[in-house]
Design goal:
The structure is a single chain. The protein is α/β, with parallel strands linked by helices. 44% of the residues lie in helices and 16% in strands. It has 6 helices and 8 strands, in the order αββαβββαββαβαα. It has a two-stranded parallel sheet. α2 packs across α4 and α4 crosses α6.
Length: 158
């Protein structure tokens, strides 16, 4: 996609300017502030039924885990490009279902196709990032996305 290409070009420019750098790639972030989890919880308070995309797969990533991972990265790993996400993968629909389940909410979640929610930029159907460089250096220390989500939901302020 154009979005992905421009990000890659930015990484290349940064590496030419300063070869001693960390590039961190992540995805599907949630944490403090506006995010998918908060949107789903808000919708659950307003309605009994939601429709959520079921043909895009990624790795939900808790920002607290990402921040801790970046600290560990700069303390223990050589410069380079690293993928940092919580482990495992799901669709947005699966993610929403898990949010409602862990929150004890009984809401109907209809799986729909991306085409039913047109966006200005195309989204890849599969965007899971492997942790190859972490595995080669210090090992993959990220926990499963389901565990991170449970932690986030149990510690957030309502």
């Amino acid at each position: 996609s154009v979005y992905g290409l421009t990000k890659l070009e930015g990484e290349k420019i940064a590496a030419r300017i300063c070869p001693r750098l960390y590039i961190v790639r992540t995805q599907w972030l949630y944490g403090h502030g506006h995010n998918f989890v908060q949107t789903m919880l808000k919708l659950a308070r307003e309605r009994q039924h939601v429709a959520v995309v079921n043909d895009q797969t990624g790795s939900p990533t808790y920002t607290a885990d990402l921040a801790a991972g970046i600290i560990r990265l700069v303390q223990e790993c050589p410069y380079g490009t690293y993928h940092m996400t919580n482990n495992g993968a799901c669709t947005w629909h699966d993610f929403a279902c898990q949010i409602f389940k862990l929150s004890g909410l009984n809401i109907s979640v209809q799986p729909v196709l991306t085409a039913e929610f047109p966006r200005p930029a195309a989204r890849p159907s599969y965007s899971v990032l492997g942790h190859y460089m972490l595995e080669l250096t210090v090992g993959d220390f990220f926990r499963a996305w389901e565990d991170a989500l449970a932690d986030y939901l149990s510690n957030r302020e309502y």
